[in-house]
Amino acid sequence: VLGTLESRGVLRRMSDMLEVLMKRMDILARLENNTDFHKGDETRFPLDRFQPAAGLMERIQAIAQNVSDIAIKVDQILRNSLLSGKGVDGRRDQCEVPRDPKYPDCAGKVEWMRARWTSDPCYAFFGVDGTECSFLIYLSEVEWFCPPLPWRNRTAASPSPPPLPRVQAAFQSDLAHLLELIGTGKESLSFMKKRIRHLAQQWLRAAQRLETKLNGRQRDQKHILIHIGFLTEESGDVFSPRVLKGGPLGEMVQWADILAALFLLGHSLRVTVSLKELQSHLGVPPGRGNCPLTSPLPFDLIYTDYHGLQQMKQHMGLSFKKYRCRVRVIDTFGTEPAYNHEEYATLRGYRTNWGYWNLQPTQFMTMFPHTPDNSFMGFVSEELNRTEKQFIKSNKVSSMAVVYGKEASIWKGKEKFLAILNKYMEIHGTVYYETQRPPEVPAFVKNHGLLPQHEFQQLLRKAKLFIGFGFPYEGPAPLEAIANGCIFLQARFHPPHSSLNHEFFRGKPTSREVSSQHPYAEEFIGKPHVWTVDYNNSEEFEAAIKTIMRSQVDPYLPYEYTCEGMLERIHAYIQHQDFCTTLPSPPLPPKAKSPAMQSPPNPLALSPNATHLVWSPSSRQDPHSWPPLDSLQVWVSEPHHTCTETCRRHGLVCEPTFFRFLNKKEVFLQLSITCDSTESEMNHLYPAVAEGVHECYLQKEPLLFSCAGYNTKYRRLCPCRDYRKGQVALCRDCL
């Protein structure tokens, strides 16, 4: 019966059933990964370790592909028989594939359409009916692989709507409308709305201060879609059911703060936590996601996460590539350029189940400023006024400690230093349990169970010490504790934890080495508020406890984690970050035609002490450059240092957007570096010099400019900049 309508329908239904089966197994894979989740306060949960079913998934995918291929061949046989009998009204012969060098892919795409147009209903939605003419109309008017057909009425294609008139953004003074936009139906949404209400007055005061600081500066209102992918049912949404059971809250804290900041800055928002809503807002045609959107994207910016990014790619067809420059990805642990560049990651062994998106690395936005290649988004902690700070100081209990971590598994194997701590302090825990006290928590610990946020804050305001057991990594809670007058004690990791030696980081798109449970607290705050010690050294641990009990500290909150600091940062990003406009490369000086002709002066000049390069005061500023170029300094790294470390050692921050200004042979010469040869290659460590052999290397692929990474063979050229006190994301003149 091959070639009949019945067999074609059966094969199509089989293909659909297999596709549904794969989707359900994908959800099971995510749920299976629940054991890998960041079990404390925060995480970006992975999809990358569902190994037992990997082979089965591959076999199902292969069967589905075979069934789909057979169905397509049946379609071809049926279609050819019809065409030979009826000629399809002669329409097939009326259109010939144009041979236009401006459209080199046209013929190949038409061939693909002949074989595959029935593989997705979206093609029929756009009018494809199996004829040559319908293929060419689709490929020239919906996609852009073929030239427009001369006989087509130009009005037949859907005209692009005129651009919406730009209105100016105005700071908002009432958060009620935002709470309506967030919606209902999930515990996670209720948590976020409760947080926004709790911090409302601080947000509003901060918005007023920033408005005064900007002094009436004009700001275009942006149309912004916020799609929180990890809360969609299609991604498994394991977070919402665990909000009331001690589950991770770090992402929801951050998303609540992002929503508040974007709204108060006066931008027009749409919020989605379901795939159906996402498809509706984007204008996704019916089908399986192979076709472009039905109309131009109505949003200037889209804030999402890795799950949302994957969903958009699956359903936007070619439009994803067209509009991905508008996406901002909220990414807790960061994505380094070596993992982001698909070809390079595949060739050099950096490919993981995350990463390889070929975005500009600064489109990824992190929770802490640990990866300068990415943008630092952050979150906020509650600020205290002077009276509250004084009250907290006078009511501290010097012998009271609170343990960081709400899950019992975190306490396992910690008996030794808990016994030492118990000699000096009363230990309090907030470990979740339903009926029986968790056996991992010793009897001498006063366990309060899971506390609402305001009660947890009250506990921190009494406690002298907030102590971490090494996990969870990099969450909001230590900053909240320090802001409430606690001293934070944490473990030093030796060797540092990374994707090379620690299961939690394995598969994440970063090689970053984590030297403690909370590197930001260690590096950016430090003593007396933060103590980082070797927990395996009982004497060092006990000495730290004794010193902390005698110490007096004021509540402290870095400016970048205040409401005003976050508003300031997001405002600057929205105003200045543009990933859709390709910046021209700095022009190379022309070769001199005669000895009398001089090359244009190099915009970089040697510093007065001849240790590094700076932007020459006499050089013209590039109006497209942000941060401003006069904040640039070029330093040469030591062989065992990343550019991130190199800049930090000079009191600066690595600024990847400046790499393009120092990716030139002349810069090596200015720094008195001898280059016997200079090559241009793809390598995330370049520009760099292999000093032993005097070989210099320039970067061939701009997406691989990276502050991260080192090799003892190379000394790297590092672009550094200054930064505002308490606001590392912005240079002194960046606002």
Which descriptors would you attach to this protein?
single chain, 735 residues, alpha/beta, Rossmann fold, 4 domains, seven-stranded mixed beta sheet
Describe it for me?
This protein is α/β, with parallel strands linked by helices. It folds into four domains: 93-150, no CATH class; 175-376, no CATH class; 386-556, Rossmann fold; 604-721, no CATH class. It is 36% helix and 13% strand. It contains 25 helices and 21 strands. Strands 14, 15, 16, 17, 18, 19, 20 and 21 form an eight-stranded mixed β-sheet that branches. Strands 7, 8, 9, 10, 11, 12 and 13 form a seven-stranded mixed β-sheet that branches. Helix 10 (250-264) links the parallel strand 1 (223-227) and strand 2 (268-272). Helix 4 packs across helix 6, helix 8 (187-198) packs across helix 10 and helix 11 packs across helix 12 (306-316). The longest helix is centred in the N-terminal third of the chain and has 33 residues, at 54-86. It is globular. The N and C termini lie far apart (71 Å). Residues 1-6, 30-54, 80-92 and 587-598 have low confidence and may be disordered. Its main location: Golgi. Residues 122-720 form the Glycosyltransferase family 18 catalytic domain. Pathway: Protein modification; protein glycosylation. Its EC number is 2.4.1.155. GO terms for molecular function: alpha-1,6-mannosylglycoprotein 6-beta-N-acetylglucosaminyltransferase activity.
